[in-house]
Amino acid sequence: MTKRILSLCWLLHIVNVALAAKEKGLVEYVNTLQGTNSSFKLTRGNTYPTTALPFGMHTWTPQTGKNGDGWKYQYVEKTIRGFQQAHQCSSWTTDYCVFSFMPVTGKLVVNEDERATGFNHANEIAKPHYYKVELDNNIITEIAPTERGAHLRFTFPEKASSYLVLDGYTGISALKIWPAERKITGYVSNNKNNKGDLIKSYLEVVFDKPFKSYGTWENRKNTVQQGKSEGAGEGIGVYLEFREGETVQAKVASSYISQEQAGVTLKAELGKFKSFAATKAAAAEIWNKHLGRIAVEGSSEEEKATFYSCFFRASLFSRQFYEYDKAGKPYYFSPYDNKVHEGYMFTDTGFWDTFRAQFPLNAIMYPTMHGRYMQALLAAQQQCGWLPSWSFPGEGGSMIGNHAISLLADAWAKGIRTFNPEEALKAYLHEATNKGPWGPSNGRHGFKEYYQLGYVPYPEYGEATAKTLEYAYDDFCAYQLASSIGNTYYKNIFARQMFNYRNVYDSTSGFMRGRKLNGEWTPNFDPIEWGGPFTEGNAWHWQWSVFHDVQGLINLMGGDTNFNKKLDSVFSVPNKVKVGTYGGMIHEMTEMVMANMGQYAHGNQPIQHMIYLYNYGGEPWKAQQHAREVMSKLYNSTEDGYPGDEDQGQTSSWYVLSALGMYSVCPGTDQYVIGSPVFNKITITLEDGKKFSIDAVNNSKDNVYIQSASLNGKPYSHNWLTYNDIMQGGRLAFTMGNTPAVNRGTALDDKPFSLSKQ
Prior knowledge:
With 758 residues, this protein is an alpha+beta fold. It has 20 helices and 35 strands.
């Protein structure tokens, strides 16, 4: 009888565990601390623990760094000095329209260094829908987000004084306290747009408890004006005192349009929630539904945590930059012309990173939003005269290339046709034949020489070979778009230039190289030397940036055998570095050496597609093996979760797509190249309710090789899927094994798109 009871108890335990796992909200898998153990010298993501809704206009984070420091939150730091409204998409840029709250007990302290309070990660919860920390002084801070605001709760220790400090950050601010209404209004402005004009974020904060006392202060000399209800100028903030031991809730909303709109947003987004718990529950429901659009089964709990943490991070960018008026219609303040327009606008992304995977992932998961984004690109061009390349929030022109055309051509190729392609091509031609005032990718460095010589010369232009390669790809995208609409004028222009990658390939060395104005190769070439004609990498990394014509690259390199050997060599040559024009070890170099995968530098974008090129060279099983190796070795769900910068969702999107078993090697076409899925079963619920499932029978850490495949019940040997294959719903089935299937997927028709293959 005892054995039977024990067996029954064990059975009930198993059932309960299974039910608990089933009921576990997907949001609980997400760790927003993923990638926060970063510094100037070594990046494990360069992230901060973001609390926000998907693509929300404002995000919130605890702040360990000084005001204005790009490293807002570093895992190794021991104190928190504020809880910020934040927008930063890279630690290498300063944030805009920031303000913060800091609860203080004991005596009133406003100085950001002196008010900083110790904390322990054991007392921290960091989820997309909910952040909580108990500081060492026993103050508890909690945050739950809406799209343009947040609900905060501060719990002060019993019988202890209860102050809340609002810091106006690094720019100018104007704030007013309304004691009778228990409210703060005003604006902060701590960054300028590309035209040098200040961008204001109007805020409204409503509290549920009365103020015992209040005043203003400024953060330059940290002087306090007790009893003063308003102030304006540099670094103006306010403070509030509440009853001792109080628990205080604050509802916050911000608008770039007006003070009135901040109030409209506060009422619309937070007015319906009577308690903090209700706001938190609503945010959890939104995230669970969002993350549930991709349901994964099989594999370990850690792999699920890594997947959903990456999916979360990929779902933050690009950020909404529009608001809803009283009638519920979208409109926005444009950071490009400082005017208010009807419709949608998005920001906080750098296309040099995100054209590769983040936007191709969005095209699958959120085609309606993606279509609006294409409209916003052309609206931005009309408002400032240039297609954005790095919007933060206006055009910054950072990095290289003109990749807005990649987004537009990719959307069109996939049937997302919400914009005028003639306008897109006209805008791109202007981009490709001019140089704008805002950074290297606002227009083109060396556009005249590129057109006349077929390459950008070095050293006349820094990063010249990298620019040549990316210009050629962008020209292909314009060619694709022009071809699809039958516009021979633009087609002929860009047909001439999209093969320019050939002009920087040196057959003697077998690498892409810097080339001088007179046609000679730059001397003293070493493929492991960083910088010079390359961007954040060396010749080993930039060899492969011919997204649109991999077959053409194979031909240059002497055929499949030589091509595949060169791919193999990336992983087998020593992981040595010559710092080149950088003059010292930059974090990307350090991360490549730490990865110990030869010259493979996954922590930066130029080489992230390279693994999938084995599909073009007739050895797809190597793509399958390497993709799984990179996912298991270089990603996890912890504070050390990334192999380098998590750039505006790109590095996360690489993981999400790769875990699904595919990758977007050449945006501008409708193809996703096949790799090896991590999970036994994946079900993607598309925007229209259709489902596309990916089943991997016998999948495991050892069984990474595809033995056979079928699509909707029919044998499938291609190393690629089309966008339509996915979007019409269906089932892709793999049988996996632990040895390569060397005869599968090797026919010419099985290779993905290349210009030279057509």
